Amino acid sequence: MATFNHSNFAIDERIDRLITSNFETVVSQTMETSTFCKDIEDSNEKREVAIQTVFRHKEQHKLKEKLRAAKIKTKNSGRIRKVKSSTRKWKKDNISLLRTCLVEMYEKRIDQEEKRKVETDENRGLFEVLGLVQKR
């Protein structure tokens, strides 16, 4: 997991370095090609819109690179198993997931009830010792 985080930082740094080194050319190309900038008359507003677009695209590109790195990492580690894309298999997986969630909820509820029962028995014993509750 630590190497994955380090690779994320490396991706961020690489893309930031690339954008800062070519910032003016990227902004000017965005001003020329963007449909938003063509409608604006003022050059300062065009530049601001182009800069916002560049930053938005930069963040999207970072996210795509990180997702690609995560897919490669999990594929190389062997954690991804190939599953047929049939809907029957998908439904079967959902049913088994639902079943396991329900079983876990049921077990958790039973544990909570037992814990409450033990706590009330302990409190009843304590209150009986103190004489606050009549003995049965």
Q: Which descriptors would you attach to this protein?
A:
2 domains, mainly alpha, single chain, 5 helices
Overview of this protein structure:
The protein has two domains: 2-77, no CATH class; 85-136. The protein is built from five helices and no strands. The chain has helices spanning 2-21, 23-33, 35-39, 43-77, 87-130. The radius of gyration is 30 Å and the shape is elongated. The two termini are 59 Å apart.
Uncertain regions spanning at least 5 consecutive residues: none
Reported for the largest beta sheet, the result is:
none
Q: Roughly what is the average pLDDT, rounded to an integer?
A: 73
CA radius of gyration is 30 Å
Helix content: over 70%
Number of strands: 0
Element order, helices and strands?
HHHHH
* Class of secondary structure makeup: mainly alpha
Alpha carbon gap, first and last residue: 59 Å
Beta fraction: under 5%
> What is the overall number of helices?
5
Overall geometric form: elongated
Instruction: State the domain count.
Output: 2
Brief rundown of the structure:
The protein has helices spanning 2-21, 23-33, 35-39, 43-77, 87-130. The chain has 136 residues and is mainly alpha-helical.
Which helices and strands occur, and which strands form pairs?
Elements: H1 2-21, H2 23-33, H3 35-39, H4 43-77, H5 87-130
Helix pairs in contact: 1-4, 2-4
